[in-house]
Amino acid sequence: VQLQASGGGLVQAGGSLRLSCTASGSDFFGPIDMGWFRQAPGKQREFVANIGNGGNGLLGDSVKDRFAVSRDSAKNTVYLQMNSLKPEDTAVYFCRVVGDRVYWGRGTLVTVSS
User: Fold this and answer.
1) Residue 33 gets which letter from DSSP?
2) What is the C-alpha to C-alpha distance for residues 90 and 39, in angstroms, rounded to an integer?
3) Alpha carbon 14 to chain centroid distance?
């Protein structure tokens, strides 16, 4: 199973970015949960968002008023729309997919300048 994430980059505070992550593989039969974690320098990995098969999304407390999570199950793709970005959102964002087991993407860097 491969997880391909994209959409990271450099943005000014107050701006927006959209991350996407697609799961693929010949032995992959579809995810149950898809979501995102992030890890800032010197900090532990932090939960950001998750969305289940039924479309029920959950967001972390620090982002719930600014981020939105969605998925396209036909494409095995999860999206993270990040609005009103703050410098403290700067981190490597990791896609996580739960199927027969937990899969992690390599991470995509988001940098928010003040």
Assistant:
1) E
2) 9
3) 19
- Is the pLDDT confidence value at 30 over 80? no
What would the two tokens of residue 59 be? 């967001």
Q: What pLDDT is recorded for position 64?
A: 95
Distance from CA of residue 86 to its chain's centroid? Answer: 16
Tell me what the mean pLDDT of segment 74-85 comes to: 95
Inter-CA distances, 39 with 27, 69, 72, 90, 99, Å: 29, 18, 25, 9, 22
Between 44 and 28, the higher pLDDT residue: 44
Closest CA to 21 of 90, 62, 66, 69: 69
* Per-residue confidence (pLDDT) for residue 28, from 0 to 100: 67
Q: Are 23 and 1 in contact (CB under 8 A)?
A: yes
Q: Which residues contact 36 (CB under 8 A, 6 or more apart)?
A: 19, 21, 48, 49, 50, 69, 78, 80, 93, 94, 95, 96
